[in-house]
Design a protein that fits this description.
Elements (H helix, E strand, L loop, with lengths): L5 H13 L1 H18 L2 H12 L2
Length: 53
């Protein structure tokens, strides 16, 4: 079983906040991912499957 590490999580968050290249990549990739994966049709399809309807 994995045991969470607060120190590791904190270090990763700090790197994200301070990393200009990471932020630039996320600013570009994030909206594209959301637009591709979270259309109304996709979200409703996942909800219907989850509800077993």
């Amino acid at each position: 079983m994995l045991k969470p590490s607060v120190e590791h999580l904190s270090a990763l968050k700090t790197a994200m906040i301070q990393g200009a290249s990471w932020r630039a990549g996320a600013a570009s990739a994030g909206p594209k991912r959301v637009a591709a994966a979270y259309t109304w049709d996709q979200v409703v399809d996942r909800l219907v499957r989850a509800l077993g309807v």
